Fold:
Amino acid sequence: MERSHLHLSEATGLERARLLQVVRDELAEATAAKKCHSCGCFQSTVSALETTASAAEQLSEPLAEARRAFVPKKYDCLGCAVCFPASAANAFAEAFPEQSVALDLCPTEVPKQRMGWPPLPGDFEVVRYQAAVAVCTLNSGELVAALVARRPSALSIAGTLHTENLGIERVIKNVLANPNIRFVVVCGEDTQQAIGHLPGQTLLALVRNGIDADGRIVGAKGKRPVLKNVSRDEVQAFLGQVEVMDLIGDADLGRVLATIERLGARAPGPVVAPLHATTFPSIAAQEPACLIPDPAGFFVVYPDIGRHRLAVEHYTTDGSLDAVVTGRTPAALYTTIAERGLVTRLDHAAYLGRELARAERSLETGEPYVQDRAAGVTDAEKMSTGCCGADDRRAGGCTDAKCKPE
Ligand code: SF4
Structure:
């Protein structure tokens, strides 16, 4: 998809006259439609237009007619897929961009940033940080769940997008915070009867035309396509970081997955100088120094080949067998063992999970299974070396309070 540069919208005299006629026609449609008379959308648009100098001068008659049609408001917005007042407001904003800030039809709040990635919360699912593709499924929420269930390796995040302003601002900020994302796939259904926004068309308009001096996305047809909470630099950095793929209207899982895979194969790597990358502490993992026995006891794990099951014997610390747990999967065994309190240390639980996975592989492949010992130095070894061994003590390797040098 072609990338574009930001530019200001300048309506010529003729174009302005044409746009004013669009405003009159759309206001007339709303004035004639009974459903609009009690709709907050219609009433707030007329009130907002009345505050502008150009509308007061050139649209006084249709605005007065519209106001005469008002009846007490019954709903804020009926959510029509085509909204006449929204079209009127957008045409007016195109004709008089300098006055369009007054058309605050759908007020936006400053989104609250949080630690980590993605910095702004929203209706999305994170798959992995170090992947190149983000997917906006617009109003097709079920597609998010289907994509996340498949977890394609190039997919970083998938979520819906319902609004032209806050929604797109969140996409921009969350993408900028992850330099690995180089593609945004826009797919799924773009209209929603209950809301009446056009976020997909607006996102593509942003890519093609940019924003005007007031942050209005040029050529966007949605209700209020104005970005208030992102800077011009952020918009430019977003357009430079990602390529936006237009699959609007397509909610076919297979085609979206194929697109993600194709894009992943040509991912150029992370952005070199990202504008707002989220930073994380880098933690170097260390080998365990001490083996602290689990006060609940220890396990003997084996594949029961005859019954084609996994088996775990649990022994108390004095060496007496107190339980035998059998099942078909590691998850069934470790869940049962944890629920019954047969494991009380996290490192012991992790060890059990690892051994169950090895025993399961042996059951499936027929490879011999020998239970591995847990990592770290045992009590007996401590007796001969003192605590975790001289090297560990010197290096300050053991931090467990129960394991002190003697
Ligand atoms: S949403 Fe728009 S078109 Fe629908 S009733 Fe309200 S003002 Fe009229």
Observations:
- The beta strands are 124-126, 133-136, 155-159, 183-188, 243-248, 298-304, 309-315, 321-327.
- The chain has three domains: 13-102, 124-265, 298-390.
